[in-house]
Each structure stands twice: as C-alpha cells, then as structure tokens.
Amino acid sequence: MKLSAPIYVLKQQAKALSRREKIPLHQALNRIAKREGFSAWSLLATRWSEGGLSRALFSQLSPGNLVLLGGRPGQGKTLLGIELAIESMSRGNSSAFFTLEFTEADVARCFGILNRDLGSFRDKLLIDASDRINAAYIVEQLTAAPPSMLVVIDYLQLLDQRRENPSLTDQLAALKCFAEARRLIIVCLSQIDRRYDPASKPCPDLADVRQPNAVDLTPFDKACFLSRGRMQVAAVE
Q: How far apart are CA 212 and CA 174, in angstroms?
C-alpha cells in the first residue's frame, strides 16, 4: 500500500485539520490514518517509519555527487531535503541549507514538523538565507567545508533569478566541479512543470523539470522525484 503523501506531510495535514476543526491532534491523526486505509495512526506509523525515504535515498548517495530532488508543491521535497541533512549529521557529518525561499524561522518550523530541535544541530548545520545565493556564493561560503558534508540548495530555478548571475547551466557545472573537488554531496531541490500529470506516470522525470530557460541537466549524477508518497531515483545519463 502506498501513502498519498510522505508521512511528515500527513502529519502537517493532521495538524491543520486539528486547528481547523478544533479537535485534539490524536483524533485528527486517526482521521488521516483512516483516509489512508489504516484503522489508527499508530498502525500507520508502525507500517511507515519516519525517515524511511531519507535513509533510502541517502544510502544511494556518495561524496562528489550532484543530486536533483524534484516534486510538485506539497509533495515533501523540502522536508526530505532537510531530512537528508539530518541523516548526514546523525552519521557525524556536517550539513548546509542554502535557501532563496525560506527564512531561518521557516527552517526551524520544518525541523519541528519532523519532531527535531533545530538547536541541537547548531554545531553541525549552516543555514544561509542570503539573497546573494548562487553557485559562486555557495562555493565561497564553503571553501573550508569538510569532506562528506551534505549541502541542500532551495531551490534550483531561483539560482539564476538575478540578471547578473551566470546561466543555470554554468552554475550547475561549477557546483558539480566543487562537489567533486571537496568530496561533498550537493542536493538541489527543483520545481516540476505544472503540465506534469500523475495520472499518466507515477513520478515525474527529467523531462518534467521546470525550465524557464533551457538548462543542461547532465552535471547531475542522480535525480530523485517525489509524487503522492512515491520516490523514484535514477542515474542521470
């Protein structure tokens, strides 16, 4: 059985339901569980352990990789990116989260959704929400980054939003070279084109990546896509 969304997204839905209908959270969780085909939330949580997707994806990544993580809004790509950072830190590595979309308070809320305390990771996690973020800026900030650091960029299509920035194709090439030189794992979150139809295929693929301007995606080593609780990972040819 597949869930309609990642378990942490279902938790968000339950919290929203609890606030909207003014019912206890445990009742909202059980209602969400019944919608997913389980008699109670405890059974759903036992069947779908949290962190399963991030561990499965992390196990397929290697230092030097440039990874695309794509999904339509609401599919959990940002939370999965943060879970990857947490998974890396739990293994003794450092992580970084560069975001042109969120504030640090937004990132803290994401940690809360995942039942994690952002403060407990302060010594291993860099959060950067500068408006200057692009490939060159990231390289500059991480010149002393230790090997195996996992870096999340939120998100791909915003890297060239400033006219003075290099093309996205050039930035991806620079990020790939930097990942290999420093032995980092760099994960770029990505939008998916609105034309993607989940009824026609279970998960989007590279052809569905939103490209306001043509982009060479071959610097990516792997591409991971999310849709309705599914995750699909493939090497980029």
A: 20
> 10 Å Cβ neighbour count for 205?
14
CATH superfamily of 52-235: P-loop containing nucleotide triphosphate hydrolases (3.40.50.300)
pTM: 0.82
Model confidence over 163-222: pLDDT tens digits?
899 999 999 999 999 999 999 999 999 999 999 998 899 899 999 999 988 999 999 999
Name the E strands within the chain: 66-71, 95-99, 125-128, 150-154, 185-190, 222-227, 230-235
Amino acid at 117: D
- DSSP conformational letter for 167: P
Domain segments of the chain as ranges: 7-47, 52-235
Per the CB < 8 A criterion, the answer to whether 223 and 208 are in contact is no
The candidate with the shortest Cα–Cα distance to 207, out of 171, 166, 236, 178, is 236
Token code pair at residue 46: 């036992």
68, 235 contact by CB (below 8 A)? no
Residue 17 makes CB contacts below 8 A (sequence gap 6+) with 23, 28, 31, 32
pLDDT of residue 6: 75
> How far is Cα 201 from Cα 91, in angstroms, rounded to an integer?
35
- Going by C-alpha positions, the residue among 134, 137, 221 that lies closest to residue 185 is 221
Query: What integer pLDDT is reported at residue 49 of this predicted model?
Result: 58
Q: pLDDT tens-digit profile of 73-98?
A: 888 899 899 999 999 999 999 999 99
